[in-house]
Structures are given as C-alpha cells and as structure tokens.
Amino acid sequence: MSKDETTQSHFIRDIVVEDLKSGRHKEIRTRFPPEPNGYLHIGHAKAICLVFGLADEFGGRCNLRFDDTNPLREDLEYVASIKEDVRWLGFDWEDREYYASDYFEQLYDFAVTLIKKGKAYVDDLSAEEIRTHRGSLTEPGQESPFRDRSVEENLGLFERMRSGEFEDGAKVLRAKIDMAAGNVNLRDPVLYRIVHASHYRRGDEWSIYPTYDFTHGQSDSIEKITHSLCTLEFEDHRPLYDWFIRELEIYPSRQIEFARLNVSHTVLSKRKLRRLVEESHVEGWDDPRMPTLSGFRRRGYTPAAIRDFCSRIGVAKANSIVELALLEHCLRDDLNRHALRVMAVLNPLKVVIENYPEDDEPDELEAINNPEDETAGSRRVPFSRELWIERTDFMEDPPKKFFRLAPGREVRLRYGYFITCTEVVKDENGEVVELRCTYDPETRGGQAPDGRKVRGTIHWVSARHALPADVRLYDHLFSVENPNVTPEGGDFTNHLNADSLEVLTDCKVEPSLADAEPGDRFQFERLGYFCVDRNSSAERLVFNRTVTLRDTWGKIQRRRSTP
Ligand code: ATP
Ligand code: MG
User: Fold this and answer.
1) N or C: which end of the chain has fewer CB within 10 A?
2) Which residue would you say has higher pLDDT here, 422 or 318?
C-alpha cells in the first residue's frame, strides 16, 4: 500500500512521534485484539488501519491477538474469518499470531499473586447479589461478607474452583479494591468465573475463565505492547488495568482511547449483526448488505477504498456518525480508476434493426475497456440485427427533455451506430415488447459524416451473443440514518429496509463476461459498478451491484462549499 495512505496525522500519531523522539520507546508495538465471536465490520477496519498503519509507518510491529476468554461464544470459524479479513485489508502480522487463551496459566498465576498479596478474594455471592451490592453512580457499593477471608482460605478455594469442584456461578474470584470507589469498575471487579464449558482451543482443560477486564491489559503487558489503542468505552476501565499493572509489577502498556466508528444506515455491533444473521434478516455474515468486511468484499468493495475511507475519517476522541455516502465516494474513486467497462442490460427490451443484414458474420465494434487507464486497452463487442436495450431508455410518449429512444427519434448506440425508432410493437395487453428501428451504416463508431448530432447515447447488447445473468441490486439495510435509536420498547430490526434487495433474473450481458470469475469487478456502462458473486458460475452468471454511479457525497460537498 502506498505510504501516503497512512500518514494522516492525529493525536495518537503525535503521541507515538513524541515517544520515539524522547527515546521512551525505541520501537513501537501495537496489537489488534478481536474477540473471535463474530465477523469483523467496518468499525474494526478503522482500528486495524490505525494499529497496523502506525506500526508500518514507524517501523514497529503489530500483533494479531485473539482475546478469547469466553468459551460460550467463540469459535474457529470466527478466527479464520478474522485472519482472512485482516489479510484482505492489506495487513500482515507475520508470525505474531497470539491468543489470550495461551496465557491462561500466566493469568492464573497473576490471580494467585493478587490473592497472596491480600488483593483478591473468593466470593460466594451470586451474580445477582454482586450486582445489587455494587451500588450506583451516586451511591457506594456494599462489601461482601466473604471479603475478609484469609489468604490461605482464598488460595484453597481458588484452587478448588480451578479443579472443577464447584458449580457454575457458585463462586467467583474478585479483586479487593474499594467498594466506595467513584469509578464502579474499581468496586471489587470479578476476575474469574466458574464456567463448565469447552473452550474452542483449550477444550475442557479449564473450568474457570478470566474476565475480559482481567485478561486484556495483562495480555498487552505480556506482549510488551507500547501503545494499547482501544475505543472510548474502555476509558473507564483504564484505572483498573493500571491497578493490575501496579499490583502485579508488570510491563506498563499505555492505553489510549479513540472514538468508535459509526456509519449511517447500518449497525456496527457484533451482537446486533449476529442477530441479523441468526434471525435470517440477511443471508449470512457475508451478505452483501452487511457492514462486515466479508459482506463488503462479496459486494465488490476494494481494500484500497476502505483504507482510503479510514484515512479520511481520521482518528478523534469524539463519537460521531459518518455518512455511508463517504465510503461509497471512496469506492467510486477507486473503481473508476480500475474497473473495466462492459455493457449489460438489466431490464431488456428487444430492438430489431430492419435494414441491417441478416448475416452470420457478426460486425465487431471496438470498445474501450477503461477511459481512465490507457493500458487497459480495448475489446471487440459483437453487433447484430437484434439487440437488447434498457427498457428505461425508451419512451413512447416522451417529455421534451428525454434524449433517449422514442418513436421517430435518433440515438447513438455506444461504440456503434445511430439508430432511429420506426415502429413500436405491443402485445395484447398494450405492453411494448419490441422496437423496430433503422440504422445509418455511415455512423459506425458513433460519428455521422454529415456532422449531424444526437443528444443521447445508450448501451446495448447483441441479442444473439448476450449471456443471461442474475443481477442483485442493494439498497441500505436500514431505512433510517441511525437504526440504534428506537422509540421506546422498539427494536433496531424495526428499522430494516424491506426493499434492501431486488433480484433481477432476466438480465443480458455482453459475451466478454463469459470468463468472469467470482470477485471480478466491472463498470456496467451507465448503470454502476458490479461484482461477480461467489455463487456465480459459467451456467448462471450472478452479479452484485457494488455501487451506483451517482456520487451523492461529491454532491453534498459541492453544495456545502458553495455559499
Ligand atoms: P462489538 O461491540 O461490535 O462487539 P467489540 O469492540 O466487542 O465490537 P472486539 O472484537 O473486541 O469487538 O474488537 C476488536 C477491536 O476493534 C477493539 O480494539 C475495538 O476497540 C475495535 N473496534 C470495535 N468496534 C469498533 C468501531 N466501531 N470503531 C473502531 N474500532 C472498533
Ligand atoms: Mg470488545
């Protein structure tokens, strides 16, 4: 990836620059720490670009670490998808693939250290009792009656918790900090829970599992992470992580928080995305309407466009919602430069050119593959007596400003000839089923020797050579800007857009697409950018519309910049 993609300045970068300058660190080390309980989304992309981007820029290293402390939700499927997505985005963790579950012994020893120092105790209160003892923002919490157990008793009980002697929830290990602390995270937080469940990597080895809070900071410390970057919701947890580091006297990683990315018209929470999948509102984690990286990939988004987006939104301390239109703008920018142009007709209407010879030898017209990229060259598209054009490119009774085809009107066929509509053929219901036209053989290539002009140019596909295809058109998954906001008692799924998917099954595409492979991206001229779906085959081509050609973001920006 090019250097300028990552050199956007922001407050975290400034801290890194300062720490390197002052000699506080010779080399920085960051990490991306997903929990393998879902697929990565565009919010994770922001975090990935930040942590890998800083390491790349300053010659440091970034680890990939799975924070896998919850046996009930985690799975190898998620590990595999996360690795695939990080790689696809363009980042490389080399051999630095770590798992918090590999630190379970070390974390257990940390807990024992705290017990021995009189800083942790085994509590018999239930989860519910612990919650009610916790107090509130305005009231202090209440101390547990088990808080003053002796070190020996605590060591014995904790060991028996580990050996599986007690039932789920019978006991927990808690830190002994301060039940009156202003920060509720410091009110004797739970460090270990009893969970008799198989862990996807550790199997049945453990019947106690450390909490996220007891794992995250120490895992950073074990890996000697210099700058531990995370989202704002962990700001209030930082005093707790610092307390662990102090009490355990281990390497002090510095945690710095930044704002989560929110994008309009979608949700970016794994819990909500999982519900969409489990309740079949979408076809899976990689449904092209999902804001997951696998969804974007299947839809035809490019990693470069997503990195560009992450660089443009920057890194700040204040939460906000970024318009999806900006991401689409970045995407068009990239696809415009790289996608090959082809012709496809989504809603076909037959055109018969009456004065064109009924020939077996097709006329091959030269078509430019990408006007933005000379090296992309050109191709030959077959022309013949019967064509498909877009139904919306014809009107029987057009208004004045309609410059496409209508009875008696002449248009240019892209890369082809001028044609004039001479007759409209209808079925018994009055529906237009075919147009009869004539062509001017002198206009091959799109110019008339007599200099006469036509206002409209339309795309087409030769009927005899066309390949049938399904085309899937997508709209916003949610019909409102912020689906997280629901009227009282409502659910975010109430905001799902019922028209987010439209499947067209009668599309015609030019024959050059016969060899298109899943993942290939094209511009269908005048229609938008499209990507071959993973379910596409030589028998049945299937395309996803990646994005239309209309740049709403560019328009918004122009409107804002004109006073
Ligand atoms: P969710 O709340 O959707 O379940 P998470 O934060 O629990 O997400 P993790 O797997 O813990 O998901 O996330 C890994 C990393 O990605 C964390 O460092 C987290 O801060 C970051 N991250 C997650 N969501 C976003 C977001 N929307 N914007 C920026 N960073 C994010
Ligand atoms: Mg998390």
Assistant:
1) C
2) 422
Q: What number is the average pLDDT over the span 436-455?
A: 95
- Of the two residues 559 and 513, the one the predictor is more confident about is 513
User: How much distance in Å is there from the Cα of 245 to the middle of ligand 2?
Assistant: 20
Q: Which residue has the tokens 């030769």?
A: 462
Ligand 1: atom nearest CA of 260 is 28
Q: What is the pLDDT of residue 7?
A: 65
**Which range (65-79, 198-212, 266-280, 480-494) has the least confidence?**
480-494
In order of start, what are the domains of the chain with their CATH numbers?
Answer: 3-258 (3.40.50.620), 270-340+469-561 (2.40.240.10), 350-384+391-450 (2.40.240.10)
This model's pTM is above 0.85: yes
Which atom of ligand 1 lies nearest, measured to the CA of 261?
A: 28
* pLDDT confidence of residue 562: 58
Distance of CA 418 to the CA centre of its chain: 44
Pocket of ligand 1 (CB under 6 A): 33-35, 43-44, 46-47, 230-231, 260-261, 268-271
551 has pLDDT over 90: no
Ligand 1 site-directed mutation target among 46, 231, 275, 322, most atoms within 8 Å of CB: 231
CA distance 262 to 264: 7
User: Would you state the structure tokens that stand for residue 512, as one six-digit string?
Assistant: 């050059």
Burial pattern 192-224, b for ≥16 Cβ within 10 A else e, equals: bbbbeeebbbeeeebbbbbbebbbbbbbbbbbe
What span, in angstroms and rounded, lies between the C-alpha atoms of 306 and 22?
A: 33
CA of 510 from ligand 1 middle (Å) equals 43
CA of 52 to the centre of ligand 1 (A): 15
User: Can you tell me the distance from the alpha carbon of 36 to that of 77, in angstroms, rounded to the nearest whole number?
Assistant: 8
Element (H, E) at 129: helix 127-133
Please identify every residue annotated as catalytic: 35, 260, 270
pLDDT tens-digit series, residues 37-63: 999 999 999 999 999 999 999 999 999
Strand spans (E) along 161-301: 172-175, 190-194, 208-210, 227-231, 254-258, 261-263
- How many residues in the chain? 563
